[in-house]
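1st attempt posting a full record on here, be nice pls
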Amino acid sequence: MSSSQKPESRIHGSKHPLVNRFQEYLGEFVYGGIDGSVTTFAVVAGATGAQLDSAVVIILGFANLIADGFAMSVGSYLSTKSEKENYEKHKAIEYWEVDNLPEKEKEEIREIYEAKGFKGELLEQIVEVISEDKDRWVDVMMKEELEMAEETKSPIAMGGVTFLSFQLFGFIPLLVYVIDYLSPLDTNLFMYSSVLTGTTFCLIGYLKAVVNQTKVLRSILETLFLGGVAAALAYFVGDVLEGLFI
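the predicted structure (as tokens):
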């Protein structure tokens, strides 16, 4: 692979089959998983720092999973929907301008391609070719003048992927507590939860590196560090509050 090949083409290549298949939604899946695992583990750490019973940890954890997961999915849905609506609004404006202000729009096309280095007869040919097809004309104006790209992802799918990922990864810090509730374990639950969550952070860090085309080790360590800091802060706050109020 040549060093000049763009990151987008590497994503579309065969190096990461998972990205090739789920590229549109993998990024949302990864970031939903990050939020799910970090926030739920922070709840577990805070409850452990406050020396709360396992049943309370489960209640708080699942409350976080459902409430925060739903809030995130709604945010993802509304954000994607807003992007699509904003694009369509500006697209309609461009169609109106092409219909009602064609000479002004042609001049804008001319200025855009003149800035790219085209001159003389070639520049006029470009303007003529673009402006002879209304759809092509508007498409060029959207990309070149407004620098807007059409959002192709479904808002419902984006919200659903976020919610699913949040639940899937966010449940992992709670897993050992649920097992202990069903069949008591004579072990340090928080330690095992930390190990499972740390493994999850590594997986998410890897997927994040794939999505962002960054170094895998750096992404894993970054995710581990941020998740660990969040958990440490929650544990400290829980410990302090437990000493003050309990």
